[in-house]
Design goal:
This protein is mostly helical. Helices cover 45% and strands 4% of the residues. The protein has six helices and two strands; from the N terminus they run E-E-H-H-H-H-H-H. The longest helix is centred in the middle third of the chain and has 28 residues.
């Protein structure tokens, strides 16, 4: 968005000669691309993503992690969980930005400090939600192929009394 920010000087400070006489304006240099990426990474809170590794538990317990399709599905589930968690942090930080600015430790968070604007955080959140919805669409609920269906290891009694 805006690559410059203007801040008013504290009242009572000397004004520059030849200025408009009302306020001193200090213009900061634009942020580097690296600091923007760093701010987004901090906002996404990747330290919290380790909890999402729990999605590996079910396929590991089922013993299907040696199948490439199961590995791909598990990786996609992990990424979706990370997007959902990070999107929640984006929304929470955007809603709490004003309160966080006056908090001694939370004021350094990317949105509260101004490194990421509320509008940009909201746009990224909308994009993440759109990605999650597209992944959870009808194509995600296709019937598994016959080779991937669960097969019981012991005989199963059918309601008619026959063994399958």
């Amino acid at each position: 968005m805006g690559s410059r920010r203007a801040f008013e000087a504290a009242p009572g400070r000397p004004r520059p000669a030849g200025g408009d006489g009302d306020r001193e304006v200090v213009v900061m240099a634009p942020r580097s691309a690296r600091s923007r990426v760093s701010a987004f990474v901090r906002l996404a809170r990747p330290k919290q993503w380790t909890k999402n590794a729990l999605v590996v538990a079910a396929p590991a317990t089922a013993g299907v992690l040696d199948e490439p399709a199961a590995i791909a599905d598990t990786a996609i589930a992990f990424v979706c969980f990370c997007l959902a968690a990070s999107g929640t942090y984006f929304v929470n930080d955007a809603l709490d930005a004003e309160a966080d600015r006056s908090h001694p430790t939370k004021r350094t968070r990317p949105i509260a400090s101004g490194a990421v604007t509320v509008l940009v955080a909201g746009s990224v959140t909308v994009g993440a939600v759109a990605g999650l919805i597209s992944r959870s669409g009808p194509s995600s609920f296709q019937r598994p192929s016959p080779s991937r269906r669960w097969k019981p290891s012991a005989p199963v009694w059918a309601p008619s009394g026959t063994v399958t």
